[in-house]
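Continuing from the previous page...

OK, I double-checked the sequence for Peptidase S15 against my notes and this is the correct one:
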Amino acid sequence: MKTVTEFPRKVVEFPDMGIVMPDGCRLSARIWMPEDAADNPVPAILEHLPYRKRDGTIFRDQLTHPYFAGHGYASIRVDMRGNGDSEGLMDDEYSEQELQDACDVIAWAAAQPWCNGNVGMMGISWGGFNCLQVAAKQPPALKAVISLCSTVDRYADDIHYKGGCLLLENFGWASTMLSYSSRPPDPLIAGGNRWRDLWLSRLENQPFLLPLWLSHQHRDAYWKRGSICEDFSAVHAAVLSIGGWHDGYRNTISHLVTNIDAPVKGIVGPWIHKYPHYAGPNPAIGFLQEALRWWDRWLKGAATGVEADPDYRAYVMDSVRPARWHPERPGRWIAEQEWPSPNIKLEAIELIPGGSKPVIVASPQSCGLAGGEYFPFTFGPELPGDQRPDDALSMCFDQAELEEAIDIVGAPQLEIRVASDRRQANIAVRLCDVHPDGASELISYGVLNLTHRASHEFPEALVPGEFVSARVVLDQCAYRVPAGHRLRIAVSNAYWPMIWPSPEPVTLKLSEAMLKLPLRPLAKVDEISFPEPEGATPWATETIRPTNSERHIDRDEKTGTVTLSITDDFGEVRDLDHGLVHGSIVSEMWAIHPDDPLSATGSTHWTQTFSRDEWSVRTETFADMRCDAQNFILSARIEAYEDENLVFERDFEQTIPRALV
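Thanks. Re-ran it with the corrected sequence; updated structure tokens here:
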């Protein structure tokens, strides 16, 4: 990445500007803007997050926000209420209070003498979600949005449920937020003992969100609120949607470009859950330059030509050897002027002809361990590995060796006729690239709770032994399978630890199966290009403990239990500007017996540390999830320490009935 130190306009920074909400709650904002903005007003760009501007997102903030400010914007990074250095309490993700606060910040910014009245909103993940949700509320000053790694459907395409199946990331993310929200404000910002009062109030009122999320196992009103797919026409702001093929939110770009009436464009690269000017795998792109083209057009009225950009720009990844991490993905950029594209045709591949003898699918509960993380973000061993261990536990349909290469671009689908011997059953479908030596690389996957085959809102129990029709839609992808390789369609009824298992072992019978494969004519060269990445001066830190990620699978030969253990040490650093030292580490454990779905367990342990001079704080959070045939059994704990003295502890225990359809 090229570091830019000289900008068209000199930048000034305000590390803690208070923005008071109508109810009196003070939000803390870090703002960068041109020094002369009061005399020459500029548009504003808002990023509204719970992730702490002081230390949580500071790495990317330093690269991004001063860059925008130097090109004539007031770039505003706000800690949401109840987080970081802001007052108040947070009770859930994407609450009405959160979205109203963002609307109020937008109105506040538009009214400032240094602002020209036009505001944009951007963000990745949580910030990508809420900028779309805020856009649907149509605050008058909001003219444009850049949303990265986000979703249009909080139920069907977030970390909670997928295809009606319960994602284990539901538990994982609830555990993460329990830890994130346990962190204190910085005493240098909050002042005196006020930081402690804010911190203890948060701890006393902090929810463990998993029971709430598990209380809504169908697509009810809870999930519909904030899902902009309920009414795409509500979004009037111009939307640039960006995502990565190695991220969990790879479908949103297509959904937005297909459905929004406002100006909208989409870009998908080979990246994990990161901003694309520093993301991996390479190639990264000049995201900030691309963002400026968007902002300049919709917030300044400049003729940047973004309207003429292709609707959908995507990176077609070449086949590579399976690995848990790829520093780079070779491939090429393609451009579709309109999306859905008339250049992409569905090819039907019959896997099981009608009238054939049914095929049996009865996978061990441990099938899925090669699947990787739902949304990788550590630049570590989190990508899907060689699929052969999972292929061996699945029913596989191998196709003939390809005589010519093919480009798969879009969402593959599997249409099936299936019968289950239980009232509830899950099915997982993986599309794999099989190398000549047998190595199996994951291209895309999809899962479906078969009771949700017709509706996520009104599921229908299966009648044991009765065949029903279902469609499993796999995730969007862009992948070249070379000549000499084979396609493999692997079908299982377990996918651990991506989804929680059915309450009973299940046997499925497939009587018909048809794969619909979206194929595009081969791209011979890059059809578009992006500038090389740029950024402002990086965050200045001293490394005290380096980062490290580890992942181990253990099989107990005596008990038969299979355990996946993950440790992500995010290291410890000292900020060379304000001196805050921050470190964090998480360990996860996912265990299951191949023959017993009720043996499934998950646990997490997070540690967060903060210090400066003689002051130090540490929080520990623990969470566990298990089940019986009727219930999810949950527990969690927070411990908070100041100068190694325990100052707060709290336990959560709850049992939530599991929906059996």
